[in-house]
Design brief:
single chain; 505 residues; alpha/beta; Rossmann fold; 9-stranded mixed sheet; 17 helices; 25 strands; globular
């Protein structure tokens, strides 16, 4: 495999829309999504009204990379090997000044997380505290190491093998990998808190109610019918939730088009919502930028399902019409599949194997699926890259200014890459068998980044000022796990300037 990647080598450039070309004001959007779900859950399904109130501190729970164990009501952060992350830090509590004890307890984020036991040593009888940094919760309540060991042990989580294959639907778990999902994680966690408070149980069955809330707010007709809270509010105040596209990105798209590239827009948003987003971000002439627009694509099925199950449909006034036996010309379509799309791309490029790159923000719906089922190059948009703190490699520092892309820091997000409760998106520490030695490991989310994306960037704006023939260092099995991050790898993946020894494979 080549060690570099360039857009100049690709005949076709494809884009997701939400959180890729269209970026949201995450603070406001997260609140709106949460309220949309909570209102339905409370009013239509009879859950506790306390769900409607959210404290500012609650947003720390929202974190990409969490997995919901539906039956148990537990949220898990997994290491790259599929084990649930947990760590014990020994602290001789009684030998610390009172203020230090308070500080140590405060760092854990929860008084209940400082466990004590009496130990008889050569220093006499004193209390040893274990400061817990466990990455599993029951609802929003952090689980103890003992609870994690009892429930999950020190072995691969039982659903990890299935989840690693990115199976799209499961009645057992749900993986949270994009910003639209995260407020729903907080809703689910608080449902578990509420249900457990009133009637502790062994198994939970709230997921069907959560699915109903999602369908109520996001079903295909919701935009037109002003159903739910989400679409009516965004239609009233688009500027409150949607960021304007930087001029550098608009110029970059035009440069791609003028250079002869075929541009695709493939989004799971329905056509009416897609039109609103694109007009607000790219302008009323946005359709001129794209050769093919595919809405309601139902990813990841778009990339994995055959034409018989996912035919393309024409649109009339944003309403889906009859299915098409073949896709024979550029245009605006709904649903569909990558197999027939690729046949059209062959025809448009005159090549037997046109090279395609796809930009997206969801590991499950965009990156894994485009890579695994179609062997497309993939560019992951990962805003956590700009939040984690970045280290400048020598080769990036030494590049001439005209070769460097724009990389600007944006306002802090309510859904950060480093959480008090969950730690870093990229790495974490685990205890040794004796609960004394801690070692640094990559998270499962970090492993997926290097395994399935060609390169990973914080935003399209970060590369918009680069020459189109710029050559990026790509992720590969033969390179460092930090190789494909642009413009800079996250600091948490580096130790003393060197990559973390645990490799993502």
């Amino acid at each position: 495999m080549a060690v570099s990647f360039s857009l100049a080598d690709c005949e076709v450039i494809g884009f997701d829309l939400d959180h890729t070309l269209c970026r949201y004001n995450l603070v406001e959007t997260a609140r709106l999504i949460y309220e949309s779900f909570a209102q339905y859950i409370v009013k239509e399904r009879g859950y506790d009204k306390d769900l409607l109130d959210v404290s500012p501190e609650s947003w720390d729970f929202c974190f990409k990379g969490l997995v919901l164990d539906m039956e148990e009501g537990n949220f898990l952060k997994l290491a790259a090997d599929g084990t649930v992350l947990s760590k014990l830090i020994p602290v001789h509590v009684d030998q610390l000044p009172l203020q230090s004890q308070r500080e140590k307890i405060g760092q854990s984020g929860n008084l209940g997380l400082l466990q004590r036991k009496h130990c008889n040593t050569s220093l006499g009888l004193f209390q040893v505290g274990h400061l817990l940094h466990n990455r599993a919760s029951h609802g929003t309540k952090q689980m103890t190491s003992e609870e994690i060991l009892e429930k999950y042990g020190r072995k691969e989580w039982k659903h990890f093998n299935t989840m690693s294959g990115m199976v799209s639907r499961s009645a057992k778990y749900y993986a949270y990998d994009n910003y639209f999902d995260l407020p729903g994680a907080l809703v689910c966690a608080r449902i578990v808190d509420s249900v457990s408070k009133h009637s502790p149980r062994q198994k939970y069955d709230f997921w069907k109610d959560m699915v109903a809330a999602i369908q109520h707010n996001y079903k295909t007709s919701a935009f037109k019918d002003n159903c739910g809270m989400y679409f009516p509010e965004v239609k009233r105040n688009p500027e409150k939730y949607i960021q304007c596209c930087p001029e550098s990105v608009k110029k970059w798209l035009r440069r791609l088009k003028d250079s002869g590239k075929i541009l695709l827009l493939i989004t799971s948003s329905h056509s009416d919502y897609c039109r609103l987003l694109c007009e607000h971000t790219l302008g009323n002439d946005f359709a001129d930028l794209f050769d093919i627009v595919i809405t309601n694509a139902l990813k990841p099925g778009f990339f994995s399902q055959p034409p018989s199950q996912r035919p393309f449909r024409t649109l009339e006034h944003d309403e889906e019409q009859e299915s098409l036996p073949v896709l024979d010309k550029p245009g605006w379509y709904s649903q569909g599949n990558s197999i027939q799309l690729y046949e059209l791309l062959k025809k448009m490029t005159g090549k037997l194997e046109p090279k395609v790159v796809y930009f997206g923000d969801s590991m499950h719906s965009d990156i894994f699926s485009a890579h695994h089922y179609n062997n497309w190059e993939t560019v992951l948009i990962l805003e956590e890259l700009q939040e984690d703190g970045v280290m400048v490699p020598t080769e990036v520092e030494s590049e001439p200014l005209e070769k460097k892309g724009k990389y600007e820091r944006h306002q802090p997000k309510p859904l950060p890459s480093v959480s008090k409760q969950w730690g870093s998106f990229f790495v974490d520490t685990i205890s040794g068998k004796g609960h004394t030695d801690a070692s640094l490991v990559n998270t499962w989310s970090c492993k997926c980044v290097s395994a399935y994306s060609t390169i990973t960037i914080p935003s399209i704006e970060a590369i918009a000022d680069l020459p189109l023939d710029y050559r990026f260092t790509r992720f590969s099995s033969n390179s460092s796990i930090t190789a494909g991050y642009y413009p800079k790898p996250p600091k948490s993946l580096l130790s003393s300037g060197e990559p973390v020894t645990t490799k993502c494979v």
